[in-house]
Design goal:
The chain is of the alpha/beta class and 350 residues long. The protein has 13 helices and 7 strands.
Length: 350
């Protein structure tokens, strides 16, 4: 009789796969051997919201057990009339209970860490080939949806804000420099093509967003939370994508850009195309952004005349933007080449 230990992609616990007739042929006249179900849930889904198959298994079980006396599902199971026994039964005990009882069903409500001792024991018994084994299966009662780990991040940030002496006293103003540093590190990871670094730096940038929102939640005036931040950007994205969520159509990326600019202009009601352009950004990026705004508004603007490298760089940045080149990225690429040349020179000198 064969059984296989696997790792469930959503529940994140090891379990014994269900033993089917294909795995171990059973004579038609054999006595029923019962069923052992490992019922997994996730703390990221509200307790009590279980799948229909989970509720069927719970109500149809002869015995339901949980080794975690504080399992969040227990109050809701009691309300639904499901009696849960405390304790962590051994594999031998469960197998004997199901088989000797003429085919009884036992459901084990797994803990957050899983039931590795139980599943290992069941695997050994099933793998011996000498046991009459019940059907062994994992049943996800609830599982994580995409984005579920973001809830963990919010909870972790809440605890850090409450218990960490440093994080608990930071202000939005004090975090500004870290946000800038993390943004530049993200840019570097992208431009270097480093996928591992990209994963890490995206997390660092995300932390900055959650941290700032958590600080804002404590503000005595006009507080807001991460849910307000997420809700605001969701509403904005839906409003600015009428070709996705509304009745308008867009066949090309240029159509999308026109939709975006038109909707954004109607929202902002600005007196100048320069409004909303942050002057604190790097100078080449600032120049390119101003040139883009002027060009998309069909404004014929003569470049200011002046002596010195600043005006020369201004002209180069405007020309680059008109040619579809990001001058900031272009200069960074050239700077990286210059860095490599410096290292090569250092190697030769050494």
């Amino acid at each position: 009789m064969a059984a296989h230990l696997r790792r469930h992609p959503r529940a994140g616990v090891s379990y014994v796969a269900r033993v089917t007739e294909a795995d171990s042929p059973v004579p038609a006249d054999a006595a029923p051997t019962g069923r052992i179900v490992l019922l997994t849930t996730t703390h990221r889904v509200a307790p009590g919201l279980l799948s229909w198959l989970a509720w069927q298994a719970l109500h149809g079980a002869d015995r339901v057990l949980s080794g975690d006396p504080d399992h969040p599902q227990l109050p809701y199971l009691r309300e639904a009339g499901v009696q849960v026994e405390p304790g962590s039964p051994a594999a031998r005990e469960l197998v004997d209970y199901c088989v000797a009882g003429g085919g009884r069903t036992a459901v084990v409500l797994t803990s957050a860490e899983g039931e590795s001792e139980l599943t290992d024991g069941l695997a050994r018994l099933a793998g011996s080939g000498r046991e009459a084994m019940p059907d062994l299966e994992l049943l996800p009662g609830s599982y994580d949806l995409p984005g579920a780990r973001l809830l963990d991040l919010v909870q972790v940030m809440d605890r850090i804000r409450a218990e960490c002496p440093w994080s608990g006293t930071r202000t939005n103003e004090e975090l500004v420099k870290y946000g800038i540093e993390e943004a530049y590190e993200l840019v570097e990871a992208i431009e270097e093509g480093d996928r591992e670094a990209l994963l890490e730096e995206l997390g660092d940038v995300l932390l900055q967003v959650v941290f700032h929102a958590r600080i804002a939640q404590d503000a005595p005036e006009d507080p807001f939370s991460i849910d307000d931040v997420a809700g605001g950007i969701v509403d904005k994205l839906i409003h600015r994508h009428p070709h996705v969520f509304g009745d308008e159509t867009a066949e090309t990326a240029e159509d999308v850009r026109r939709h975006w600019l038109r909707t954004k202009a109607a929202e902002k009601q600005r007196d100048s195309v320069t409004e909303g352009v942050p002057l604190g950004q790097p100078a080449l990026a600032l120049t390119a952004k101003l040139a883009f705004r002027a060009r998309t508004a069909a404004l014929d603007v003569a470049l200011p005349e002046g002596a010195g490298v600043g005006y020369e760089l201004l002209a180069l940045a405007v020309r680059a933007e008109a040619d579809g080149v990001d001058p900031e990225a272009a200069l960074r690429a050239a700077a990286r080449a210059y860095r490599d040349a410096i290292r090569a020179a250092e190697g030769s000198a050494g």
